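Researcher: We're teaching a course module on how sequence relates to structure. For the next exercise, students receive a sequence and then see the predicted structure as tokens, so they can try to spot secondary structure elements on their own. Here is the exercise chain.
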Amino acid sequence: MTDATPLTIYRCVVRPEWVDYNGHMRDAFYLLIFSFATDALLDRIGLGDSVRTARERSVYTLEAHINYLREVKQGMRVRVDVRLLASDAKRLHLYLEMHADGADAPVSVSEQMLLHVDTRGGAKSVPFDADVAGQVAALHATQRDGPPPAYAGRVIGLPVRR
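Model: And here is the predicted structure for the students to work with:
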């Protein structure tokens, strides 16, 4: 049985230097927080810094979409929950939700596609090593039956007028 519960992977407090002239967190820092959360996920699946260095492997972001849903202000505590929506031998399809000060509704979400690469000369994509692939499969098994994420699969575009 799976519980499909998102995994809380990262927590931080919004710093003064992340806030803009409107008193809100700048858009770039949402991505920074999601990036830190992705690093924490890599640690969780066995691809921490020491493993990446020793094996000369890394993970590159192929695509990232961010939805800004509610304002975030200086000093707010935020957490990021992650769901592994899908994976294959080389890629991870992630859905990350940022929540502020214990609120149930997310303040931002990010959908990302990551690629596992060999960093020796040219960064060629390679399959995950067996131990990492096992951790990815185990995580996906606990999350695959969850409800569809509210903001996954969205496309940016203006409506076409006929």
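Model: If you want an answer key for the exercise: Residues 27-44 form the longest helix (18 residues). The chain has a mean pLDDT of 93.
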